[in-house]
Amino acid sequence: FVFCFFFSRLIFGTLYPAYYSYKAVKSKDIKEYVKWMMYWIIFALFTTAETFTDIFLCWFPFYYELKIAFVAWLLSPYTKGSSLLYRKFVHPTLSSKEKEIDDCLVQAKDRSYDALVHFGKRGLNVAATAAVMAASKGQGALSERLRSFSMQDLSTIRGDSSSTVPPSVTVRTSSKQSQPKPSRSASEGTGSSGKC
């Protein structure tokens, strides 16, 4: 039944009034403008209240049926529910509190702008710090890798008298070096074979 409620609310609470609001704009009829504006104000308040009542009152018997009946009452040209609620309750309340509401909206707008700027600056600072740290860690990792390669090369050069490194294993230590570095024993072997 919940699906039926949402479907009927979509059709009768939103699409039907939207189409007649379009017709009012097209015909430029002031009475229709006012009528549908009152409806949309009441419907916005109903939707806001419904967000909270759905949480707490959904267990109430015939809750969804009552909501459908309320939307039908708002729309009915015979009951004129939205006009009645607007004129009796909403307009007098908003008229008496309009100055305070406007002040709150201006303050909220200023605060949200200040908060947006503040969080934007903090976000940029965090991003810049993360980029610098990543670059420094990357530089450190690169230098550690190069250092480990050069230490490996030194150990192979020092330990050549006891063991030989196959020529297929190559380690590059700089970008200028394009050919693999032959081991000492391999070069001595070639040199000695050249002498014989």
TrEMBL record:
This is Receptor expression-enhancing protein. Belongs to the DP1 family. GO terms for molecular function: microtubule binding; olfactory receptor binding. It is found in: Membrane. Its main location: membrane. InterPro entries: TB2_DP1_HVA22 (IPR004345). The chain crosses the membrane at residues 6-25, 37-62. Residues 161-187 have a biased composition (Low complexity). Coiled coil: none annotated. Keywords: Membrane, Transmembrane, Transmembrane helix. Residues 156-196 are annotated as: Disordered. Pfam families: TB2_DP1_HVA22. The keyword Membrane applies. GO terms for cellular component: cytoplasmic microtubule; endoplasmic reticulum membrane; endoplasmic reticulum tubular network. It is a multi-pass membrane protein. One of its GO terms (biological process) is endoplasmic reticulum tubular network organization.
